[in-house]
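Supplementary notes for students who missed Thursday's class. We covered one full example, reproduced here. Read the sequence, then the structure, then the short commentary at the end.
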Amino acid sequence: MDVFIDLGMSPLANSYLSRAELRQPERFYPLVAYVCDECYLVQLDEHAHPDEIFSHYAYFSSYSDSWVRHAEDYVETAVGRWNLGATSLVVEIASNDGYLLQFFVRRGIPVLGIEPAANCAQAAEKKGIRTLVRFFDDALAREFVTAGTQADLIVGNNVLAHVPALNDFVRGLKRLLRPGGVITMEFPHLMRLIEENQFDTIYHEHFSYFSLHTVTRVFENQGLFVFDVDELPTHGGSLRIYVGHEPPSRRPFTSQVEELLAREDRAGLRDRARYREFASGIHAIKRELLRFLLAAAEEGSRVVGYGAPAKGNTLLNYCGIGRDLVQFTVDRSPHKQGCFLPGTHIPILAPEALREARPEYVLLLPWNLEREIVGQLSYVREWGGRFVIPIPHLRVYP
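Structure (token representation):
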């Protein structure tokens, strides 16, 4: 194992604090990503148990308009491609607040959500989505099969990276999937993370970071095979893999799989030197952002944040940015409003506070949603406010 990036000590990225908790000790953990020198899987140590991270979750998927549209588009395509109907079963693992399964339900297709966060599952149930409050693993899959239940389609969006016991999880997928069924998994693409300096997508709830090479190997080790792949713009650049029981001799790889594997090789994703180079670019981003914020403070300009995503907490804590440089941030989710960001203790307010404060600069913490957010915040230009984008390099524009 080699060190891929050492981001110092950081709190859990989704551990938002109440005002009372500001007076209590706060737990920090090493945030170090390692790369395997044999298979090139990038992983973190497991410092916090999944129960501590996911049992009560502050992230509700439905508060991102573009993410919900992405889910609806996926459902429309999946229903036609896999001929899903009233006799099918769609299972989503880490189904959150029902942001995706609601679109299958509207088409009369039976669904089951598996979601460990009871507060998110409760929101899904209110939408009429049957949701089991459990962590998914091979033992749970065995319970389903014993009861005579298998899935025609298993969906996992941004869950594979969250799994510490990766091989057990994939064994469960294989067990739950009926013969001829399909698994789709979406996750941030390691190649994009490296090429675009997306270090802020590294935080404790993400245990693994995948290239197509590594994820294919993980699934093949459990008797599942990636037969197709889509490259997606979500989360700064993601992959959606399509997986089935059939080996390539029965369901050949698409040309997209072969082409992307070749591109990853050209990008150096099976070259140890490429991973060693990553850290130097991240240090430069930190210095660049700090220089800008310090200059803004010196000239008396106010900087506030937009959004309270987990990635923003990695960015702020690694750079040592606190309320002296970013006065507050705003977020659409009422589940975060009134809380404080972990580590930095920057307050989270409702979006109306942005219009009231009329700051000179708005730092977009969920920079991957830049187009959506800048469209929503077009009124910032009314007072000459400017947007600050920190990744992949600092951009400031009107």
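Commentary. The first helix runs from residue 50 to 54. The CA atoms of residues 340 and 347 lie 4 Å apart. If anything here is unclear, bring it to office hours.
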